Amino acid sequence: MDHFDIRGGVMHAEGVNLDSLADAVGTPFYCYSSATIERHFQVFADAVAGLGDGDPLVAFAVKANPNLSVLATLARLGAGADVVSGGEMARALAAGVPANRIVFSGVGKQPHEMAAGIEAGILQFNVESEAEIGMLAAVAAAHDARVDIAIRVNPAVNPGTHAKISTGGQDSKFGIPIERAHAAFVMAAGHASLNPVGLAAHIGSQLTDLSPIESCITRLGELAQGLRGAGHGVSRIDVGGGLGVPYRADQPAPPLPSVYAEMVARATRGWDCRLIFEPGRMIVGNAGVMVAGVILVKQGTTKTFVVTDAGMNDLLRPSLYGAWHDIRALRPRGDTMVATVVGPVCESGDTFAEDRTIEAVGAGDRIAFMTAGAYGATMASTYNSRPLVPEVMVKGDAWSVVSERNQPAAMLALDARAPWL
Ligand code: LLP
Known about the structure:
The protein is of the alpha/beta class.
């Protein structure tokens, strides 16, 4: 469910005509629908509302879309934030997410980031190694603080998703291997500056099958039971994010949040602790599109290339993961063409779609890459010295540029001539 549809022959985002918007801001750009973000958050939050101790925390995974206005939209609805860097934490705080709704994850937190989290008073750190327990204990002690932590467990579960976005397998860098997690919890409890309160896991992203998440949760439950049996308090369990979104109409849709919530309810029955969820893609994926202009159509030996003004630097997912984004014309004419849709970047991997049937377009037309709200703009770069792609948010008939396109002069200003040049 999203708010991008064709009205009067033109794609709209809520009440805003995207072709007119493209005239105003130029292409390429990302466009987010507030109504879709709000709806998806609410659907998820309502689905999990009664679970655990009845006070679950839905901590949006900021990495999926860290735009300040996206975070502020979610903060107003009561969202927390799952952050993995000092930069993400600063954004969440600036957007109005209360510190006590922020969870700090990540395998390589640096002492200055730990210090910033302690100073801000965040809810908890999800600690991912024995080495990190020692580091965080030292930073907390230097602050005369006692910080709440959860042990992030590597549950050795294969999530059955793309290898590059799979995090729960035995040989992944994430979490503490489950067989050492009990000992790690006890080790943390031995530090006066640490207060181990719970467990966490996240096994991967774009999950379309719930059974690996269910086995992961079951393993966390067994671990919690063992810890409680040994006299430790386990009051929070963070089950991560990972629920997939539909990218293609011709493939089965991932489970609905309500079905996911039923599974979590079943797997956590009787646990008596606060549950934390870290959804990212599910909240923002379908709430964003990337609009691009068609520069020209070029005939190869066997292929027809549609060359767009957006490149792999603006939307990396197809190049990096072979990911599929539906491509639609902003003004569909009713006929189709078979095209290989590429960007202007000087790499063969700068390909969005290979020999795909799309709505017919020509030079000067505009297209939308659908389901680009998650891991889109945030993974953009300035490769080929291309300006960072801007972001626009829409609410009803209103729109606002919520991240500017940086201009070549601004990019150049970050460089300096070495004194000998
Ligand atoms: N929590 C943790 C600890 C994570 O590492 C992630 C995602 C999430 C939550 C949110 O997962 P989600 O609900 O969004 O699936 N760039 C890739 C996705 C990388 C995901 C990394 N971790 C892509 O474009 O598909």
